[in-house]
Structures are given as structure tokens and as C-alpha cells.
Amino acid sequence: MILVTGGTGLIGSHLLFHLITNGNSVRSNYRTKASIEKVHKVFGYYTDDPSHLIEQIDWVQADIADLGGLDSLFDGIEYVYHCAALISFDPKDFKILERTNVEGTGNVVNLSLKHGIKKLCYVSSIAAIGPIIKGKESTEENEWNEAKASVYGITKYEAELEVWRGSQEGLSIVIINPGVVIGPGFWKSGSGTFFSYASKGKKYFIPGGTGFVTINDVINAMAKLMDSNIQTERFILVNQNMTYEKLFQKIAPKLGVAPPTKKVSKFMLECFWRWDWVRSNIFGKRRKLSRAMANGLYHQENYSNQKIKSRLDFTFEDLDKSIVFCCDKFMEKV
């Protein structure tokens, strides 16, 4: 049996669909019944009978940060895809990020060792890759620099250290570092916010850019890595390095609106992160833009995908087709 932690998220839900439709016996944890409804919605993008597939999953209510309730989650498990994580760039959330991303991953590693798991695939992030060097593509060998990382990136890097520790103790592991994952279903978080923002016909786009990858590429790469003899390695998963302006130019017309044409200036970003700090500290509002995030938005981040392409003879799918598919699914919900 295969365990998928974080099966109710974007990557986890698509991974569950892949595994179930390929005849695998699968277990996944969840926190609330409402979160399973999100999986049902994602499955509905690809099949007319999502309920039938949902019922084939062995659902267990469990929090990876709560070690006491996790042991039974691993009974009878041979392979683990660890997708569970908390995403936040608010410095105030550091402790909860650390609890979920670092301590939770430590729990998964320890129980994988205890139960003799054959192989673990950990879903990290390009946020855990070392700092960007202007004019160069970042690789898996970038040197880490915590001073230039977001709180989310710091906890994902520390979570990777837990996975590397497990490998030193005899656990077979692989790590993936996806870019911004383009996939349907979660329109109020992650890449889904690009579609929601574009649909409103907004005029401004943020400067800079980063690496993007389709959800199908992420799932296929994970499955291929788990089926291979490759272990104790990490792989960047990025299809294209692209500006946010270019991304909106691809999304907006498919949603029937004009793409944004005005770049948010450096001055505006400087003002906004300061105002965001004030509203957070005085009014208790959740941070939307930290100083580190604002600084990162000034630049184009470029990532190399040569390692995954050469080691697995991996071919990335057409990113534009995936964007069109997401736009179609987004329009269905309107």
C-alpha cells in the first residue's frame, strides 16, 4: 500500500488520482471532511464518477505534526509520498510553519524508518534552493543562504535536512523541488490566485518572474523517480522560466479579459510591504507581502531542469496547454 500525506492539497489530490487510476492501493490522511470535498472536486475535472474513486482511498484523520496519532497511518505501508506542508510567507507564522513542515517531516521520516518503508518521495520547493544568482540558472547544487530566504523556504530546507537524515539512517529517499505548480482546483491559493486575479481584469502585474511547472509533470516525475533505482538525490522540477507579465498574457485572453499592462514599480512594492507590516502589527491582519518577498519580486528567477531530463530522460509537457485546461476549469466554476 502507498501512503500520500497531504492528499487534500493540489499536488496530493492529483497524485491520488494518478495512483488510484493506475490500480494502486492508497491511504491518505486528512484533517476535515470538507478537505476531502476538495479532492472530489479535483477528481471531477478528470472523471464523470469521482465518488467511485474517492471511496477507494483509505482515509485516515491525522495530523503529521501530532506524532501520537500517526503510527497507525503507516501500518501496511510500503511507499510514502510526503506532500503535506503549510505554505505561508508571513514571518509571524514561523513557529507553525516549523511545526508542520519541519517537525511533521521529522515524524514522517521516523515512522518510515520504524515501519521499514521501501522508499520515500518528499515534495520540497524551489524556495529551498539557494539564492538566485543574476544571469545564471539555479541548480540542485546552489549553496544555501538562510539570510536571503523566506520563512517558508527556511522551513522547507530544514525539512529536507530531516529527509537527508533519514537517508543516513538507511531510508531510501528522493526529493523534488517544484517551481510554481500550474494545476486546477485551488483557486484561492498558490498558482490558482493567478487565474482568480487575471479574471478580474486587473491592470497591474508584479515585476520579475520564476519557474513554472504543470501538475502533470510533477506527478509523472514523482512516479518515475519512485519506480526507478534513483535514491538520495534531489531534482528541480521546472518546465519554463517565465515573467509574471508573460504568464498573465497567457491566462487573461483565455478568461475573456485583457491582460494587465502596468508594472508594479519598486517604489510601490516598497510602500506596500511597509504598509502590510503596519496593518499586521497594529490591526492584527495576516501578512500578504514581507520585505523578503518584495525584494524577490524585483528579479527574474531562473532554474535549470537539466538534471531531471538527463537522469530520467524526462520530457516536460506543453505548459500552454495546461494553462488553457486550467482556464477552462476555472470558467466552469464561474
UniProtKB/TrEMBL annotation:
Which Pfam family name is an example for this entry? Answer: Epimerase
Show the PANTHER family listed in the entry: NAD(P)-BINDING DOMAIN-CONTAINING PROTEIN-RELATED (PTHR48079:SF6), PROTEIN YEEZ (PTHR48079)
Domain NAD-dependent epimerase/dehydratase: residue ranges: 2-228
Output the InterPro entries linked to this UniProt entry.
Epimerase_deHydtase, NAD(P)-bd_dom_sf, NAD(P)-dependent_oxidoreduct
Q: Name one GO cellular component term.
A: cytoplasm
Originating organism = Flagellimonas lutimaris
Query: A GO molecular-function term, please?
Result: aldehyde dehydrogenase (NAD+) activity
Write down what this protein is called: NAD-dependent epimerase/dehydratase family protein
